[in-house]
Design a protein that fits this description.
The chain has 353 residues and is α/β, with parallel strands linked by helices. The chain has helices at 60-64, 71-93, 112-129, 138-144, 188-198, 205-212, 237-254, 259-285, 300-307, 321-324, 329-337, and strands spanning 7-10, 17-20, 29-34, 39-46, 50-58, 102-108, 133-137, 156-161, 166-173, 176-182, 289-293, 315-317. Helix 5 packs across helix 6 (205-212), helix 5 packs antiparallel against helix 8 and helix 8 (259-285) runs parallel beside helix 9 (300-307). The structure holds 5'-O-[(R)-(carboxyoxy)(hydroxy)phosphoryl]adenosine and zinc ion (ZN). Residues 37, 162-164, 189, 192-193, 204-207, 210, 294-296, 298-299, 325-326 line the site of 5'-O-[(R)-(carboxyoxy)(hydroxy)phosphoryl]adenosine.
Length: 353
């Protein structure tokens, strides 16, 4: 087959060919594992859009004690959880290994020790059950989360905002995700988590800051918007420092920090920067579809700003909350739609893009 939306994978034991991709006529059921950071997840997804099982074991409670993710601890917790979540995914879906077409896992970017747990479990399953293995890029997968439960088709502009990345991606077709802008320092989620910590909010800070912000005045403090060279690039480390200086000043002058107002002002500043640049990219390329992805796509203010664009002729997509933060359904979806760009059993983990 020469169709670009289909890739031939080999079964590891029998060597038989299996064709994967959205242009294959038969149903394709992919089981996927995700373990790049602090969630161990397993999912089973039919034809890239229909979730048959979605299981996530979160490590939030463990890492809260340390105020952030400790890589060695994360890897050990993945090991404890991985077999249980696989069993649970089979139970949820009512399927048997024989019903699965292929097995996928995240190969990077992420914490190497954590990635190895999911990848090796998936490769072992692939060999045991003689299924093709598909190695998936975590960032592509956050964008593909938008295909779940929708009929979305490219072209689209994607805003990917997670704990480790902030990118504007031009998606011309299923296979082509071109990064046209990204942060030159802190990621959006990282900025959220650092500011949340300054305000004394528990890990994971982003969600807690988002819950606090609606109680404050977004115009209380004017925070700086960094000037960056690249038209669609971002910089958030100055913003984080500005919040640090502001909180120190407020504490010195008033003896206390009006946390709600600081949270609201920070949220307004960072979400309006993300919004403006993404819309500018959509305008430049004449693309009327914008999709959000990554943990910060769960943010209430980001969703509000973008969904308001639907009155101006845009179509906006954002994954359901459970598919914004790390999950394995998006990995399975990515393995299906981007099969042709993905590697098989020989692939190893990587920490950074
Ligand atoms: O995509 P994700 O689950 O993991 C990575 O791939 O990094 O994103 C996690 C990030 C964390 O920084 C977390 O604080 C942030 O997403 N986050 C939020 C919200 N929910 C999660 N940030 C702002 N508002 C939220 N509602
Ligand atoms: Zn992620």
């Amino acid at each position: 087959m020469t169709n670009k939306l289909v890739k031939e994978f080999k079964k590891p034991i029998s060597g038989e060919s299996v064709f994967i991709g959205p242009d294959v006529d038969e149903d394709i059921i992919i089981m996927a594992l995700e373990s790049s950071c602090d969630e161990t997840a397993c999912a089973i997804v039919k034809n890239g859009r229909e979730v048959l099982a979605n299981v996530v074991a979160s490590q939030i409670k463990t890492h809260r004690e340390f105020g952030g993710v400790v890589p060695e601890v994360a890897a050990r917790e993945h090991l404890d959880a991985v077999n249980l979540i696989i069993e649970e995914a089979f139970e949820q879906s009512g399927l048997k290994p024989a019903d699965i077409t292929a097995i996928a896992a995240t190969v990077g970017p992420g914490l190497v020790g954590s990635l190895l747990v999911g990848l090796n479990a998936a490769k072992a399953l692939a060999v045991t059950y003689d299924k093709p293995f598909i190695g998936v890029n975590h960032l592509n997968a956050h964008v593909c989360a938008n295909y779940i439960d929708t009929d979305l088709k490219p072209p689209m502009i994607a805003l990917l905002v997670s704990g480790g990345h902030t990118q504007i991606i031009k998606v011309d077709d299923y296979l082509n995700q071109q990064i046209i802008g990204e942060t030159i320092d802190d990621a959006t989620g990282e900025a959220y988590d650092k500011v949340a910590r300054l305000l004394g909010l528990p890990y994971p800070g982003g969600l807690n800051l988002d819950r606090m912000a609606p109680n404050g005045n977004p115009k209380a403090y004017k925070l700086p918007e960094a000037k960056v060279q690249g038209e669609f690039d971002f910089s958030f480390s100055g913003l984080k420092t500005a919040v640090l200086n502001l909180t120190r000043k407020l504490e010195k002058e008033h003896g206390a920090i009006p946390k709600e107002d600081v949270a609201a002002s920070f949220q307004e500043c960072i979400t309006s920067t993300l919004f403006k640049k993404t819309v500018k990219a959509a305008e430049k390329y004449g693309i009327k579809q914008i999709v959000l992805g990554g943990g910060v796509a769960a943010n209430s203010e980001i969703r509000k700003k973008f969904f308001a664009l639907e009155d101006k002729g845009y179509k906006i997509f954002a994954p359901a909350m459970k598919y914004c933060t790390d999950n394995a359904s998006m990995i399975a979806s990515s393995a299906y739609f981007l099969a042709n760009t993905m590697d098989s059993l020989e692939i190893e983990v990587f920490s950074r893009c």
